[in-house]
Amino acid sequence: HLSLGCRSAMPRRCQCWDMADRQRCSAAGAWRTHRPALLAAGAAVAVASGLPVIAADEGFNCVDGYGEGLGDWEKAWSITKKSYCCSHFNIACPDSTSSPFDCVAGLSNWKLGWSDGKKHWCCRNKQVGCESVLLRDAFEEAEAGAAVAAAHAMIIASRSSSVALVAEGTCGVSAVLDKIGNYAKPASLQPVCNAHMTTNCSVSYAGMRCPEGCGYLVPNAHFSCVFECVPAERCSASNVNLAFPDPALKRCTPCAIEGCQLCRTPGTCTSCHEGFELSADGSACVFHVDRELKLDSLAPGLKVVSQAVLGFVVIFGVLHHCYKGGHENQEENTRSIMRGRRHRHLCKVSDWQLGRTTSVRQSYPLSVNVHKVHIVGVGLPLFYNNTCFLGLVALLFFAVTFLCFRSSSISGIIGAAQRMDWELLEYAIEPIDQAPAMVLSPLAQCGGSTAAHAMRAIRSFATTNFYALGLLYVLTFLLSLVHGKLQLRAARIYDEENATMSDFALRMTGVKKELTHEAELTQKIQKAFDVACGRNHIEVLGVSICYDYYQVWGEVDAMKDRLVERMDLDMQHKVSEHKSKLAGGATVTTDVAISAANTTMGDEETLREQVEKDRASAKKWFDKDSDEKLHSTGELFVVFRRSRDKGLVLKEKARAAALLQDLAETPDEKVCIFDVFSEPPSINWWHLAMPQGKRNYNICKAMLKLLAIIVVVQVLIVLPFAQYIVLPYSKIGSSAGGMKMQIAGIILGNVNMFLSLQIYFTASGLGFHRKDGVDMMVLCSNTFLVMFNTFFNIATTAIMVFSKESDSGWGPWIFLTVDSLNAIGIEAEFANSIYSTLMPGAFFVGYPMCLLMAGVVPFILNSFLMKVIYVWRSLPDALLNALKVFLPWARDLSLDRYPFRRAERGFEPMEIGIGGDYTAMIVSPTVCFCMLFFVSPFVWKTFAMMFLSTCFYYLYCRYLHLRFCKPAYYTTNRLDTMVNHLWGVPLSVVAAACCTWGIRSGLLAEGASQPVQFALIGGAFCASLVLWLLSYRLLLNPWAQKDVEELSTATFEDVKADLLYTWFNCNPVYTLKCEYYLRDAKRVVDGIAHRPGVLKVKIDGARGLRDADWMPFAGTSEPFCVAELVGKPRSRHVTPGHQHGHNPVWHDSAEFIHYSEGDALTFTVYDKDVHKSDDVLGHVTLSGDQVCAGFEGELELDAAGRGVKAFLRVTVTPPEVKFPQTKVHIRGATGLRDADWGLGAGQADPFCICEVVNKPHLQLVTPTYENKANPAWGFTTGLDLDSNDTLVFTVMDQDFLKKADCLGTVTVTAEQLRSGLKGKLPLGRSKGSKAFLEVAIEPPHTGVRDASSTSGRHPLACGEDPNQVRCFEVGKEYLFVRPERQHLVERHLQDCLEFETHLEHLLHICGHLTLPCRLLRCAATPKIPRRGSRELLVPRSP
């Protein structure tokens, strides 16, 4: 405490021993100079040994005032100063006959009731009120050789500790313990054989000698105050860490040889433990696995060989790349790889909104309120709420367990046992007599606590723990119910505040499976809902039919994948055209630009052939007369335009279902209407046809399969590993290492990965209709698997702990009693082992390892493999094919081309897996609650770390979900409800622990047999589980989902612009139907992905235009061009205006969907005016033959102005595919009346209008003939007509001062269209005149197509463009944006918080390392001679 008399640490002039020297040193100031440093050094020794140390104070000046007179110090000094000076300087000590304190009064509450001075005096003089001891070894040999033993035992304790002194000469055995923990007073202080004994020695065991026959003293492995006297051969049996019987000290001391059972010397072994074999020279014990396999001896050689092979491969690859490498498709494959990296960024969780004008995609900030914001559905906010609740529970358990442990005197007993270090224990076996100045003995607390005190403290702790855990269980149970209620409330509030696609849909079942025409079903349902809801107008937008395509699931999935690939190619082509247009016609390319060479097909021709094959498959699936026609599952989703309509129909759903009974499969089956809570991306469309009975059968089969796999893995891998590797090492108190553990770790890691993948793929194929069913299956399976593995490891740990004990009678029954001090030590070590597995591995290290192994490593490895195989081609083809096996989505590819779609799949991040994340929230609390069974300070430490781990996990999940994973939609609260059901497992563990402590304290089942007690504990667990399930189910009723009234009045289109996905573009079969079968969708094509079926026109610009704005200060003209198919006014395209009037440049492109062979094309150039009608600057018409042949060049404009020659530059590309159309010939009319009756009006100016009922976009208008009663138009074109279409012909009279007059109408029925028509048709409404219209209608040779092959007015599976087919897929959201707005997608594509951004920069820098190879390759390649040069490429002679 004063750091005086220290031989090595103190300067020579201050090595003071007698009183005079002390006074001299104090007066000289040397003490004040060196005391802080010496005290700090002593404190460091204490901290390193794990013992508590009090803060150093200035103490008392025991010199001044003492020599002036005895009476002065007796009156002036306080009791505390007297006690301090007496114990430190042997002065001011009271007379032994008079006691300043009564050490009997208040002994029961001495710790809190006694002052520091009373504790100090009573401990020194009466040996009561003592806590922990700090030993200062002050042995000093006299110069004459006489040994002067002045053992000063100085005690420091934490905060309120006092000092006690136990004389070394009076220590010995304080109690004798039997196997069940009973203790008896020893006959003498001398040790005995065949018994566990406790000592009251506070310094060392040096003063005790064991009797003959058991002459070696060995401290207990768990409590330093407990020891045994054993024969030499039983040293390691009593304490596996002490295998050397030291004949000089008569103590069992540590042996330096691992696995040695009996050491002859500290470095020589006589016999080894089971599983180890003694070497010939006795210097080592070789593990039997190492002896048989010789792994450790082979490890250096294998390391050298592997390094040599790796170096050879690297050097060979570099040389091969420099001289022979370099992929012939290097540029295309590099673009595919860059496209894959771009796709990885686009796959991350983002906020997509088509309505924004600055950026359609934004990353969520890490500080976003994940508890409320709609990101991937309601499941994510509920997950984070659960995480916060788990942190609250951990904090509550930490507070209670900490108070229970620290308020009990057991903390000193068990705490000292946990702090015991084997190097420190050597001080108790053989005390040192030199530096360091302060020696901390693990026997420090033995003098102040006896076995009786320890057992009483443990029994008191058992009672306290029983009541505390009971209180904790009740509080946690009630908090869990409140949490469940709040979760249900949060789900309802989330539904109110966020408009989703489920707010616009109802599910209808029992519909005829043959009804697969969406437009017809929509009309029938619309009529029924209008009748059912009365005056409330209901607007049904469409239906999404659930097709039964499970048998062709693979083909549909492959077609969908090819469709997405072509969608990407089409978008890239249109974006390139748009960029070229903005660049004035120049070609613009980027690193991620792709072409047909980057697709799976490889070239345009193969791509087009595949499109035709897909179209043939679609025709086979959707034609009503096809034998392979796809039927529905009898289920469909009715989609409304407004969410209000859904609520109105739900109120009248019984009446609406009755009105739709004619759609039922059979008269006995009813059409039913249900509410919808799931979102379209979470519907498993391919499993909707699977009945519930078959799905339940698949679930049972899968569970048995999973259980069989787990059993096989445990029996064949885990159990042998534990039996032959872990257990032998545990018996010697050590752990295995070396190559065998590396191999075992690799095997077990791959097995666990295989089991996790098996669970996911098995759950996906069981037939769940919705994703939440798959998630719940994954959650339960993962929880079972992890729980099984965890408790198997705990059982293995228990076996390891019990195997180190010499007695074979240890087992789980030690947790039923607190009568054995040694048993308490065993369970304390057991708790320490479990805590070591949790901290830091399970609590902290595992989460960053997930980021590393699932993100960083695959990204770097896949990038490297892609470069080696498809860019550098730096190895022979045989090795590249071997490496290709490890590249995801590339096994079936050749070495020539790497499609961008495969690169995107290879770079895709993992999905947000809340189901797997929830597993940790069940398993981790369960394991932590298992610590409640133990007597250990690691109990409250576990809950403290659990709270910190939950906080860390909350922040980790934020980063994981917002910057690492790709979205996976969790649109219901069913997963959270399942988690709350499973919460009953950890909650029931608390109940079982409470019951266990009731038994241990004697308050429950006292005197009952062990089987009855174990049955009572198991009954408490089961009863708690049943109580929780019933309470949660009956009080909260979580499965009863109810729709709430939306706060938002958003329409379907508004929500679609926000979410992108709909009930139409998420339906894979309907998407393929729109693309390949519905005619009006099929015509919207692009020339790269398809052979063009539309007329494509590019209007480059004009020159020589006149200036129509002739007024002063009017400026120049602002010309624009209008292109139109003659006779089809709805097919009209207008270019943007151009400010440079005489020679405008537009570079504008147009597609004419309803072009028919023979249609003429007219171009008209206008001058845009504000205050008057636009001026015509010229016009020109391309005849039908010119359009069919195609045209590229300049056309001279007619009516360009007097003396003005103006020209228009256009490119016309005719369609390559001619779709069969119905030919319509409007030849002429006869007998038309004269509608112009005014004076000088002349005859009628007739023209004819042809309209298709309900299809206004197909309107035809003939030219106008002036003053003709019998016009002959001779107009011919083609129309895309269906079998149920009807044509209406109307002859009109063109007037200038009034609207056109009707001269007659005639209707051509659908039957006439299908059979064809030719001749004169009488006109109705001709007002008395006999007028006729001469027409001819020729159906296509294949017949008029069936009405089911058109969508009618039913919405397509589309994105921002309602006419462009789109299939929703995560990471492809940008395809829903129009081409001219694609540049908004690229904004903020890379985020500095994403690790890929920094890795890409690093890989880019590494890519420059190949520059020398490229230079060498260029230098070795002969130059190609210029055209016209006489140089010849003459091969070099060998």
Secondary-structure map:
Elements: H1 19-28, H2 30-48, H3 70-76, H4 79-89, H5 110-113, H6 116-126, E1 134-136, E2 140-141, E3 147-148, E4 152-154, E5 173-177, E6 183-184, E7 196-199, E8 216-219, E9 226-230, H7 235-238, E10 244-246, E11 251-253, E12 260-265, E13 268-272, E14 276-278, E15 285-287, H8 288-293, H9 295-323, H10 330-347, E16 350-352, E17 361-363, H11 379-406, H12 410-419, H13 422-429, H14 451-497, E18 505-509, H15 518-533, E19 540-547, H16 553-582, H17 604-622, E20 632-640, H18 643-651, H19 653-659, E21 672-675, H20 692-731, H21 739-764, H22 771-803, H23 821-872, H24 877-884, H25 900-907, H26 914-930, H27 938-964, H28 974-982, H29 984-1000, H30 1010-1036, H31 1052-1059, H32 1068-1076, H33 1079-1082, E22 1095-1103, E23 1119-1125, E24 1132-1134, E25 1145-1152, E26 1161-1167, E27 1175-1182, H34 1184-1189, E28 1191-1196, E29 1207-1213, E30 1222-1230, E31 1246-1252, E32 1255-1261, E33 1275-1279, E34 1287-1293, E35 1301-1308, H35 1310-1315, E36 1317-1322, E37 1332-1338, H36 1395-1407, H37 1411-1420
Antiparallel strand pairs: 1-4, 2-3, 5-6, 5-7, 7-9, 8-9, 10-11, 12-13, 14-15, 16-17, 18-20, 18-21, 19-20, 22-25, 22-29, 23-24, 23-26, 26-27, 28-29, 30-33, 30-37, 31-32, 31-34, 34-35, 36-37
